[in-house]
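Students often ask why inverse folding is considered easier than folding. One informal answer: many sequences map to the same fold, so there is more than one right answer. In these notes we will look at a single instance of the problem. The structure comes first.
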Protein backbone atom coordinates (compact mmCIF):
# COMPACT_ATOMS: atom_id res chain seq x y z
CA UNK A 1 0.00 0.00 0.00
CA UNK A 2 1.35 3.44 -0.96
CA UNK A 3 1.08 6.67 1.07
CA UNK A 4 -1.54 8.08 -1.26
CA UNK A 5 -4.68 8.87 0.70
CA UNK A 6 -7.66 10.41 -1.08
CA UNK A 7 -11.12 11.12 0.19
CA UNK A 8 -14.64 11.60 -1.06
CA UNK A 9 -16.25 14.04 1.37
CA UNK A 10 -19.90 14.54 0.52
CA UNK A 11 -22.44 16.55 2.47
CA UNK A 12 -25.43 14.23 2.49
CA UNK A 13 -28.31 16.51 1.60
CA UNK A 14 -30.47 14.08 -0.36
CA UNK A 15 -29.51 11.65 -3.07
CA UNK A 16 -26.10 11.22 -4.67
CA UNK A 17 -25.73 13.44 -7.70
CA UNK A 18 -24.03 12.15 -10.82
CA UNK A 19 -21.33 14.83 -10.46
CA UNK A 20 -20.69 13.55 -6.92
CA UNK A 21 -20.31 10.02 -8.21
CA UNK A 22 -17.84 11.27 -10.85
CA UNK A 23 -15.79 12.90 -8.06
CA UNK A 24 -15.93 9.72 -5.97
CA UNK A 25 -14.91 7.68 -9.02
CA UNK A 26 -11.89 9.83 -9.88
CA UNK A 27 -10.72 9.62 -6.27
CA UNK A 28 -11.24 5.87 -6.29
CA UNK A 29 -9.47 5.31 -9.62
CA UNK A 30 -6.49 7.30 -8.42
CA UNK A 31 -6.40 5.33 -5.17
CA UNK A 32 -6.45 2.05 -7.08
CA UNK A 33 -3.95 3.29 -9.66
CA UNK A 34 -1.45 4.20 -6.93
CA UNK A 35 -2.30 1.38 -4.54
CA UNK A 36 -3.42 4.08 -2.14
CA UNK A 37 -6.37 4.39 0.26
CA UNK A 38 -9.88 5.60 -0.58
CA UNK A 39 -11.56 7.30 2.36
CA UNK A 40 -15.14 8.41 2.80
CA UNK A 41 -15.79 11.25 5.21
CA UNK A 42 -19.18 12.79 5.82
CA UNK A 43 -19.29 16.59 5.97
CA UNK A 44 -22.48 17.37 7.80
CA UNK A 45 -21.64 20.43 9.86
CA UNK A 46 -24.29 22.49 8.09
CA UNK A 47 -27.16 21.25 10.23
CA UNK A 48 -29.73 23.33 8.32
CA UNK A 49 -29.18 21.06 5.31
CA UNK A 50 -29.50 17.79 7.20
CA UNK A 51 -31.73 15.24 5.46
CA UNK A 52 -32.87 12.06 7.18
CA UNK A 53 -31.80 8.91 5.32
CA UNK A 54 -29.49 10.79 2.98
CA UNK A 55 -26.38 9.03 4.25
CA UNK A 56 -27.83 5.57 3.64
CA UNK A 57 -28.97 6.60 0.14
CA UNK A 58 -25.54 7.87 -0.65
CA UNK A 59 -23.73 4.77 0.58
CA UNK A 60 -26.14 2.48 -1.26
CA UNK A 61 -25.68 4.35 -4.52
CA UNK A 62 -21.89 4.17 -4.15
CA UNK A 63 -22.08 0.49 -3.32
CA UNK A 64 -24.20 -0.14 -6.41
CA UNK A 65 -21.69 1.68 -8.59
CA UNK A 66 -18.74 -0.47 -7.55
CA UNK A 67 -16.75 2.42 -6.03
CA UNK A 68 -15.35 0.78 -2.90
CA UNK A 69 -14.42 2.51 0.32
CA UNK A 70 -11.29 1.34 2.15
CA UNK A 71 -11.57 3.54 5.21
CA UNK A 72 -14.11 5.82 6.87
CA UNK A 73 -17.87 5.54 6.54
CA UNK A 74 -19.23 2.51 4.68
CA UNK A 75 -21.95 -0.14 4.69
CA UNK A 76 -21.39 -3.47 6.44
CA UNK A 77 -22.60 -6.86 5.10
CA UNK A 78 -26.08 -6.11 6.44
CA UNK A 79 -26.21 -2.72 4.72
CA UNK A 80 -25.84 -0.91 8.04
CA UNK A 81 -23.74 2.26 8.23
CA UNK A 82 -20.44 1.55 9.90
CA UNK A 83 -16.96 3.07 10.22
CA UNK A 84 -13.51 1.59 9.78
CA UNK A 85 -10.10 3.14 10.26
CA UNK A 86 -7.79 4.68 12.80
CA UNK A 87 -8.54 8.35 12.14
CA UNK A 88 -12.22 8.32 13.14
CA UNK A 89 -14.80 9.34 13.77
CA UNK A 90 -15.34 10.02 10.07
CA UNK A 91 -18.62 11.88 10.36
CA UNK A 92 -17.96 15.53 11.12
CA UNK A 93 -20.92 16.02 13.46
CA UNK A 94 -19.46 13.17 15.56
CA UNK A 95 -16.08 14.88 15.42
CA UNK A 96 -17.71 18.02 16.79
CA UNK A 97 -19.18 15.99 19.66
CA UNK A 98 -15.74 14.50 20.32
CA UNK A 99 -14.37 18.04 20.66
CA UNK A 100 -11.78 17.53 17.95
CA UNK A 101 -11.92 21.05 16.50
CA UNK A 102 -11.71 22.99 19.79
CA UNK A 103 -7.99 23.05 20.29
CA UNK A 104 -7.35 24.03 16.69
CA UNK A 105 -9.64 27.03 16.79
CA UNK A 106 -8.18 28.07 20.16
CA UNK A 107 -4.68 27.92 18.72
CA UNK A 108 -5.65 30.22 15.84
CA UNK A 109 -7.33 32.69 18.20
CA UNK A 110 -4.39 32.73 20.62
CA UNK A 111 -2.01 33.39 17.74
CA UNK A 112 -4.21 36.22 16.43
CA UNK A 113 -4.95 34.34 13.20
CA UNK A 114 -8.65 34.21 13.99
CA UNK A 115 -10.97 36.48 15.99
CA UNK A 116 -14.31 36.53 17.71
CA UNK A 117 -17.00 38.38 15.81
CA UNK A 118 -20.11 39.70 17.57
CA UNK A 119 -21.89 41.21 14.59
CA UNK A 120 -25.52 40.24 14.26
CA UNK A 121 -26.85 38.69 11.09
CA UNK A 122 -28.87 41.88 10.47
CA UNK A 123 -25.74 44.01 10.58
CA UNK A 124 -23.89 41.66 8.24
CA UNK A 125 -26.82 41.70 5.80
CA UNK A 126 -26.94 45.49 5.91
CA UNK A 127 -23.21 45.78 5.19
CA UNK A 128 -23.59 43.39 2.28
CA UNK A 129 -26.57 45.26 0.83
CA UNK A 130 -24.68 48.52 1.00
CA UNK A 131 -21.62 47.01 -0.67
CA UNK A 132 -23.76 45.52 -3.40
CA UNK A 133 -25.50 48.84 -3.98
CA UNK A 134 -22.04 50.45 -4.32
CA UNK A 135 -21.04 47.81 -6.88
CA UNK A 136 -18.54 46.14 -4.53
CA UNK A 137 -18.09 42.42 -3.92
CA UNK A 138 -19.87 41.82 -0.62
CA UNK A 139 -17.69 40.71 2.28
CA UNK A 140 -17.37 41.21 6.00
CA UNK A 141 -16.12 44.75 6.75
CA UNK A 142 -13.83 43.68 9.59
CA UNK A 143 -15.55 45.61 12.40
CA UNK A 144 -14.63 43.04 15.06
CA UNK A 145 -11.06 42.40 13.83
CA UNK A 146 -9.53 44.78 16.33
CA UNK A 147 -11.47 43.86 19.48
CA UNK A 148 -8.79 42.91 22.06
CA UNK A 149 -8.95 39.23 22.98
CA UNK A 150 -9.52 39.94 26.71
CA UNK A 151 -12.50 42.14 25.91
CA UNK A 152 -13.92 39.53 23.53
CA UNK A 153 -13.61 36.83 26.20
CA UNK A 154 -15.44 39.03 28.67
CA UNK A 155 -18.29 39.62 26.23
CA UNK A 156 -18.57 35.88 25.69
CA UNK A 157 -18.58 35.29 29.47
CA UNK A 158 -21.45 37.77 29.62
CA UNK A 159 -23.44 35.60 27.24
CA UNK A 160 -23.01 37.42 23.93
CA UNK A 161 -23.40 35.34 20.80
CA UNK A 162 -20.40 35.11 18.54
CA UNK A 163 -18.80 33.51 15.53
CA UNK A 164 -15.08 32.98 14.93
CA UNK A 165 -13.58 34.42 11.77
CA UNK A 166 -10.32 33.89 9.97
CA UNK A 167 -8.06 36.96 10.23
CA UNK A 168 -6.66 37.22 6.74
CA UNK A 169 -3.56 39.37 6.30
CA UNK A 170 -4.11 42.45 4.13
CA UNK A 171 -3.08 42.52 0.51
CA UNK A 172 -1.24 39.25 0.32
CA UNK A 173 -1.05 36.91 -2.63
CA UNK A 174 -2.02 33.34 -1.92
CA UNK A 175 -1.05 30.80 -4.56
CA UNK A 176 -1.40 27.11 -5.05
CA UNK A 177 -0.53 24.72 -7.82
CA UNK A 178 -3.54 22.84 -9.12
CA UNK A 179 -2.51 19.61 -10.84
CA UNK A 180 -4.97 20.22 -13.66
CA UNK A 181 -5.44 23.98 -13.90
CA UNK A 182 -1.88 25.03 -13.03
CA UNK A 183 -0.89 27.90 -10.74
CA UNK A 184 -3.79 29.83 -9.23
CA UNK A 185 -3.32 33.05 -7.28
CA UNK A 186 -5.76 35.09 -5.22
CA UNK A 187 -5.19 38.32 -3.28
CA UNK A 188 -6.45 38.35 0.30
CA UNK A 189 -8.04 41.77 -0.35
CA UNK A 190 -10.50 39.96 -2.61
CA UNK A 191 -11.21 37.34 0.02
CA UNK A 192 -13.57 37.31 2.99
CA UNK A 193 -12.64 36.83 6.65
CA UNK A 194 -14.28 33.44 6.48
CA UNK A 195 -16.43 32.27 9.39
CA UNK A 196 -14.70 29.24 10.93
CA UNK A 197 -17.03 28.60 13.86
CA UNK A 198 -20.72 29.38 13.51
CA UNK A 199 -23.08 30.81 16.06
CA UNK A 200 -24.31 27.27 16.86
CA UNK A 201 -20.75 26.30 17.78
CA UNK A 202 -20.33 24.08 14.74
CA UNK A 203 -17.28 24.52 12.53
CA UNK A 204 -17.92 25.61 8.96
CA UNK A 205 -16.98 23.39 6.07
CA UNK A 206 -13.87 25.51 5.40
CA UNK A 207 -12.48 24.98 8.86
CA UNK A 208 -13.44 21.35 9.31
CA UNK A 209 -12.19 20.33 5.87
CA UNK A 210 -8.68 21.59 6.59
CA UNK A 211 -8.42 20.14 10.09
CA UNK A 212 -9.81 16.80 8.94
CA UNK A 213 -7.76 16.48 5.77
CA UNK A 214 -4.68 17.18 7.87
CA UNK A 215 -5.57 14.81 10.72
CA UNK A 216 -6.59 12.08 8.27
CA UNK A 217 -3.29 12.49 6.39
CA UNK A 218 -4.98 13.19 3.06
CA UNK A 219 -2.35 13.58 0.35
CA UNK A 220 -4.54 14.62 -2.61
CA UNK A 221 -7.73 16.66 -2.53
CA UNK A 222 -9.73 15.68 -5.62
CA UNK A 223 -12.98 17.60 -5.98
CA UNK A 224 -15.16 19.58 -8.36
CA UNK A 225 -13.80 22.89 -9.63
CA UNK A 226 -16.59 24.83 -7.92
CA UNK A 227 -14.29 24.64 -4.87
CA UNK A 228 -11.39 26.51 -6.50
CA UNK A 229 -12.35 29.87 -5.03
CA UNK A 230 -12.44 28.29 -1.55
CA UNK A 231 -9.01 26.76 -1.90
CA UNK A 232 -6.96 29.91 -1.05
CA UNK A 233 -8.76 30.07 2.30
CA UNK A 234 -7.80 26.47 2.91
CA UNK A 235 -4.24 27.08 1.77
CA UNK A 236 -3.97 30.04 4.15
CA UNK A 237 -5.30 27.91 7.01
CA UNK A 238 -2.63 25.28 6.37
CA UNK A 239 -0.05 28.04 6.50
CA UNK A 240 -1.53 29.48 9.69
CA UNK A 241 -1.29 26.07 11.35
CA UNK A 242 2.17 25.43 9.97
CA UNK A 243 0.98 22.31 8.16
CA UNK A 244 1.78 21.08 4.64
CA UNK A 245 -1.18 21.46 2.30
CA UNK A 246 -2.25 18.45 0.22
CA UNK A 247 -1.99 18.44 -3.54
CA UNK A 248 -5.06 19.96 -5.22
CA UNK A 249 -6.83 18.46 -8.20
CA UNK A 250 -9.96 20.29 -9.29
CA UNK A 251 -12.09 18.35 -11.75
CA UNK A 252 -13.83 20.04 -14.68
CA UNK A 253 -17.48 20.96 -14.15
CA UNK A 254 -20.08 18.57 -15.48
CA UNK A 255 -22.15 20.53 -18.00
CA UNK A 256 -25.52 19.79 -19.53
CA UNK A 257 -26.04 19.90 -23.28
CA UNK A 258 -26.65 23.67 -23.18
CA UNK A 259 -23.18 23.99 -21.65
CA UNK A 260 -24.63 25.17 -18.36
CA UNK A 261 -23.70 23.56 -15.10
CA UNK A 262 -25.42 20.18 -14.77
CA UNK A 263 -26.82 20.99 -11.40
CA UNK A 264 -28.59 19.32 -8.53
CA UNK A 265 -31.01 22.16 -8.37
CA UNK A 266 -32.65 21.18 -11.64
CA UNK A 267 -33.72 18.06 -9.78
CA UNK A 268 -32.18 15.72 -12.31
CA UNK A 269 -29.00 13.77 -12.47
CA UNK A 270 -29.37 11.68 -9.34
CA UNK A 271 -27.66 8.29 -9.45
CA UNK A 272 -30.92 6.73 -8.25
CA UNK A 273 -32.66 8.01 -11.39
CA UNK A 274 -30.15 6.20 -13.56
CA UNK A 275 -30.62 3.02 -11.55
CA UNK A 276 -34.38 3.39 -11.97
CA UNK A 277 -33.95 3.80 -15.72
CA UNK A 278 -32.10 0.52 -15.88
CA UNK A 279 -28.52 1.53 -16.53
CA UNK A 280 -25.85 -0.94 -15.49
CA UNK A 281 -23.27 0.10 -12.90
CA UNK A 282 -20.53 -0.87 -15.37
CA UNK A 283 -22.04 1.32 -18.08
CA UNK A 284 -22.59 4.34 -15.89
CA UNK A 285 -19.09 4.09 -14.41
CA UNK A 286 -17.47 3.67 -17.82
CA UNK A 287 -19.37 6.72 -19.07
CA UNK A 288 -18.51 8.84 -16.01
CA UNK A 289 -14.83 7.98 -16.32
CA UNK A 290 -14.90 9.58 -19.77
CA UNK A 291 -16.58 12.68 -18.36
CA UNK A 292 -13.50 14.83 -18.05
CA UNK A 293 -10.84 12.17 -18.58
CA UNK A 294 -9.67 10.51 -21.77
CA UNK A 295 -7.48 7.48 -22.24
CA UNK A 296 -4.32 7.44 -24.29
CA UNK A 297 -6.10 5.59 -27.11
CA UNK A 298 -9.25 5.60 -29.21
CA UNK A 299 -10.79 2.98 -26.99
CA UNK A 300 -13.91 3.88 -25.03
CA UNK A 301 -15.09 0.72 -23.32
CA UNK A 302 -13.33 -0.07 -20.07
CA UNK A 303 -13.92 -2.18 -17.01
CA UNK A 304 -13.20 -0.67 -13.61
CA UNK A 305 -9.88 -2.59 -13.46
CA UNK A 306 -8.81 -1.29 -16.86
CA UNK A 307 -9.75 2.24 -15.84
CA UNK A 308 -7.77 1.97 -12.61
CA UNK A 309 -4.75 0.77 -14.55
CA UNK A 310 -4.83 3.66 -17.04
CA UNK A 311 -6.23 6.50 -14.97
CA UNK A 312 -4.09 9.44 -14.00
CA UNK A 313 -4.72 13.16 -13.57
CA UNK A 314 -2.48 14.01 -16.53
CA UNK A 315 -5.26 13.20 -18.92
CA UNK A 316 -8.04 15.03 -17.06
CA UNK A 317 -9.34 17.98 -19.10
CA UNK A 318 -9.14 21.56 -17.95
CA UNK A 319 -12.52 22.61 -19.30
CA UNK A 320 -16.08 21.49 -18.64
CA UNK A 321 -17.27 18.03 -19.57
CA UNK A 322 -20.63 17.79 -21.34
CA UNK A 323 -23.02 15.16 -20.09
CA UNK A 324 -24.28 13.54 -23.29
CA UNK A 325 -27.05 11.08 -22.59
CA UNK A 326 -26.78 9.51 -26.05
CA UNK A 327 -23.19 8.67 -25.31
CA UNK A 328 -24.25 7.15 -21.99
CA UNK A 329 -26.80 5.01 -23.85
CA UNK A 330 -24.17 3.95 -26.36
CA UNK A 331 -21.67 3.00 -23.66
CA UNK A 332 -24.30 1.24 -21.56
CA UNK A 333 -25.54 -0.65 -24.63
CA UNK A 334 -22.15 -2.40 -24.79
CA UNK A 335 -22.72 -3.84 -21.35
CA UNK A 336 -26.26 -4.91 -22.23
CA UNK A 337 -24.90 -6.73 -25.30
CA UNK A 338 -22.40 -8.53 -23.07
CA UNK A 339 -25.09 -10.10 -20.88
CA UNK A 340 -26.31 -13.62 -21.51
CA UNK A 341 -29.90 -13.83 -22.74
CA UNK A 342 -30.94 -15.24 -19.36
CA UNK A 343 -29.26 -12.40 -17.47
CA UNK A 344 -30.88 -9.81 -19.70
CA UNK A 345 -34.27 -11.48 -19.25
CA UNK A 346 -33.86 -11.27 -15.49
CA UNK A 347 -32.90 -7.60 -15.68
CA UNK A 348 -35.75 -6.50 -17.92
CA UNK A 349 -38.44 -8.45 -16.05
CA UNK A 350 -39.10 -5.83 -13.33
CA UNK A 351 -39.32 -3.12 -15.99
CA UNK A 352 -41.79 -5.16 -18.03
CA UNK A 353 -43.88 -5.92 -14.94
CA UNK A 354 -43.82 -2.36 -13.74
CA UNK A 355 -45.04 -1.05 -17.09
CA UNK A 356 -47.92 -3.52 -16.93
CA UNK A 357 -46.86 -5.42 -20.07
CA UNK A 358 -46.49 -8.72 -18.23
CA UNK A 359 -47.16 -10.04 -14.75
CA UNK A 360 -44.84 -11.81 -12.34
CA UNK A 361 -45.90 -15.22 -13.68
CA UNK A 362 -44.89 -14.56 -17.26
CA UNK A 363 -42.96 -17.59 -18.52
CA UNK A 364 -39.18 -17.59 -18.47
CA UNK A 365 -39.23 -19.07 -21.92
CA UNK A 366 -41.03 -16.08 -23.38
CA UNK A 367 -39.01 -13.63 -21.33
CA UNK A 368 -35.83 -15.15 -22.75
CA UNK A 369 -37.28 -14.89 -26.22
CA UNK A 370 -38.08 -11.24 -25.61
CA UNK A 371 -34.56 -10.58 -24.31
CA UNK A 372 -33.02 -12.33 -27.31
CA UNK A 373 -35.28 -10.41 -29.70
CA UNK A 374 -34.25 -7.00 -28.41
CA UNK A 375 -30.77 -7.52 -27.03
CA UNK A 376 -29.14 -5.62 -29.88
CA UNK A 377 -31.47 -2.62 -29.46
CA UNK A 378 -31.75 -2.28 -25.68
CA UNK A 379 -29.40 0.38 -24.29
CA UNK A 380 -30.90 0.40 -20.81
CA UNK A 381 -33.39 -2.00 -19.28
CA UNK A 382 -36.29 0.47 -19.33
CA UNK A 383 -36.07 0.35 -23.14
CA UNK A 384 -37.54 -3.17 -23.10
CA UNK A 385 -41.18 -2.26 -22.41
CA UNK A 386 -40.98 0.72 -24.78
CA UNK A 387 -39.60 -1.35 -27.63
CA UNK A 388 -41.96 -4.27 -27.15
CA UNK A 389 -45.16 -2.65 -25.97
CA UNK A 390 -47.00 -3.26 -29.22
CA UNK A 391 -46.66 -7.02 -28.70
CA UNK A 392 -48.55 -6.85 -25.45
CA UNK A 393 -51.16 -4.15 -25.87
CA UNK A 394 -54.60 -4.80 -27.32
CA UNK A 395 -54.96 -3.93 -30.98
CA UNK A 396 -57.06 -0.84 -30.27
CA UNK A 397 -54.34 0.47 -27.93
CA UNK A 398 -51.25 0.04 -30.04
CA UNK A 399 -49.67 2.83 -32.00
CA UNK A 400 -49.45 2.09 -35.70
CA UNK A 401 -46.63 4.23 -36.96
CA UNK A 402 -47.11 6.40 -40.01
CA UNK A 403 -45.29 4.15 -42.41
CA UNK A 404 -47.21 1.12 -41.18
CA UNK A 405 -50.56 2.92 -41.55
CA UNK A 406 -49.72 3.70 -45.17
CA UNK A 407 -48.65 0.16 -45.95
CA UNK A 408 -51.75 -1.29 -44.31
CA UNK A 409 -53.97 0.64 -46.70
CA UNK A 410 -52.29 -0.88 -49.75
CA UNK A 411 -54.03 -3.27 -52.12
CA UNK A 412 -51.85 -6.31 -51.39
CA UNK A 413 -52.18 -6.12 -47.65
CA UNK A 414 -55.65 -7.67 -47.48
CA UNK A 415 -54.52 -10.54 -49.65
CA UNK A 416 -51.51 -11.19 -47.48
CA UNK A 417 -53.43 -10.87 -44.23
CA UNK A 418 -56.05 -13.30 -45.50
CA UNK A 419 -53.37 -15.78 -46.52
CA UNK A 420 -51.80 -15.51 -43.08
CA UNK A 421 -55.13 -15.92 -41.30
CA UNK A 422 -55.96 -18.97 -43.36
CA UNK A 423 -52.74 -20.71 -42.40
CA UNK A 424 -53.15 -19.65 -38.81
CA UNK A 425 -56.63 -21.18 -38.78
CA UNK A 426 -55.14 -24.50 -39.81
CA UNK A 427 -52.55 -24.44 -37.01
CA UNK A 428 -53.25 -25.34 -33.37
CA UNK A 429 -50.75 -22.81 -32.17
CA UNK A 430 -47.73 -20.85 -33.33
CA UNK A 431 -44.74 -23.08 -32.84
CA UNK A 432 -41.22 -22.74 -34.17
CA UNK A 433 -42.02 -24.66 -37.29
CA UNK A 434 -44.96 -22.37 -38.08
CA UNK A 435 -43.02 -19.19 -37.27
CA UNK A 436 -40.09 -20.24 -39.45
CA UNK A 437 -42.06 -21.32 -42.50
CA UNK A 438 -45.16 -19.12 -42.66
CA UNK A 439 -43.59 -16.28 -44.65
CA UNK A 440 -42.20 -18.68 -47.27
CA UNK A 441 -45.59 -20.35 -47.57
CA UNK A 442 -47.37 -17.02 -48.09
CA UNK A 443 -44.76 -15.99 -50.61
CA UNK A 444 -45.36 -19.17 -52.59
CA UNK A 445 -49.12 -18.83 -52.52
CA UNK A 446 -49.38 -15.14 -53.34
CA UNK A 447 -46.28 -14.69 -55.45
CA UNK A 448 -45.49 -11.55 -53.39
CA UNK A 449 -41.99 -11.30 -52.02
CA UNK A 450 -39.33 -9.10 -50.45
CA UNK A 451 -40.37 -5.78 -49.02
CA UNK A 452 -43.85 -6.09 -50.50
CA UNK A 453 -44.36 -9.24 -48.48
CA UNK A 454 -42.56 -8.38 -45.24
CA UNK A 455 -43.64 -4.79 -44.73
CA UNK A 456 -47.40 -5.40 -44.74
CA UNK A 457 -47.21 -8.49 -42.55
CA UNK A 458 -44.82 -6.90 -40.12
CA UNK A 459 -46.92 -3.71 -40.03
CA UNK A 460 -50.10 -5.69 -39.38
CA UNK A 461 -48.60 -7.73 -36.55
CA UNK A 462 -46.36 -5.17 -34.85
CA UNK A 463 -47.56 -1.71 -35.87
CA UNK A 464 -44.31 -0.93 -37.65
CA UNK A 465 -42.68 -2.04 -40.90
CA UNK A 466 -39.32 -2.31 -39.19
CA UNK A 467 -38.33 -4.42 -36.24
CA UNK A 468 -36.51 -7.47 -35.01
CA UNK A 469 -36.79 -11.04 -36.21
CA UNK A 470 -40.47 -11.62 -37.04
CA UNK A 471 -40.54 -15.31 -36.23
CA UNK A 472 -39.54 -14.50 -32.64
CA UNK A 473 -42.29 -11.93 -32.47
CA UNK A 474 -44.87 -14.45 -33.70
CA UNK A 475 -43.78 -16.92 -31.04
CA UNK A 476 -43.97 -14.25 -28.39
CA UNK A 477 -47.43 -13.06 -29.33
CA UNK A 478 -49.03 -16.41 -30.00
CA UNK A 479 -51.96 -17.44 -32.16
CA UNK A 480 -54.85 -15.75 -30.42
CA UNK A 481 -53.30 -12.31 -30.22
CA UNK A 482 -52.12 -12.31 -33.82
CA UNK A 483 -55.47 -13.57 -35.08
CA UNK A 484 -57.29 -10.77 -33.30
CA UNK A 485 -54.84 -8.21 -34.53
CA UNK A 486 -55.04 -9.27 -38.16
CA UNK A 487 -58.82 -9.22 -38.05
CA UNK A 488 -58.66 -5.75 -36.57
CA UNK A 489 -56.37 -4.64 -39.39
CA UNK A 490 -58.77 -6.00 -41.96
CA UNK A 491 -61.63 -4.04 -40.50
CA UNK A 492 -59.87 -0.80 -39.73
CA UNK A 493 -57.47 -0.02 -42.55
N1 LIG B 1 -18.48 18.59 1.48
C1 LIG B 1 -18.07 19.13 0.23
C2 LIG B 1 -19.14 18.77 -0.80
O1 LIG B 1 -20.23 18.55 -0.43
C3 LIG B 1 -16.72 18.54 -0.15
C4 LIG B 1 -15.81 19.46 -0.85
C5 LIG B 1 -14.40 18.92 -0.78
O2 LIG B 1 -14.19 17.83 -1.31
O3 LIG B 1 -13.57 19.55 -0.18
O4 LIG B 1 -18.92 18.70 -1.98
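Output (designed amino acids):
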Amino acid sequence: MSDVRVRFAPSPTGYLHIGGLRTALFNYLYARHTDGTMILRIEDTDRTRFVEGALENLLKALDWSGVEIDEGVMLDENDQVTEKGEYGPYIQSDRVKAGIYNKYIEKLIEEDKAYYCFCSQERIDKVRDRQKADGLTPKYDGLCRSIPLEEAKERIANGEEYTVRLKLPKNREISFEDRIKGKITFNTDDMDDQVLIKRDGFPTYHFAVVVDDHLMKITHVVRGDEWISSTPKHVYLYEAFGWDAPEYIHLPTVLNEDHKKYSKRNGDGMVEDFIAEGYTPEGLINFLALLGWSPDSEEEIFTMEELAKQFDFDRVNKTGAVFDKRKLDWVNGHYVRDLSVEQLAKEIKPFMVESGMIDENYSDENLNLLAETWQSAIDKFSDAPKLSKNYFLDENEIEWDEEASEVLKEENTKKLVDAYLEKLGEADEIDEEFAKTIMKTIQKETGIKGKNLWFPIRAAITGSVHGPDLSNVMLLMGKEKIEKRLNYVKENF
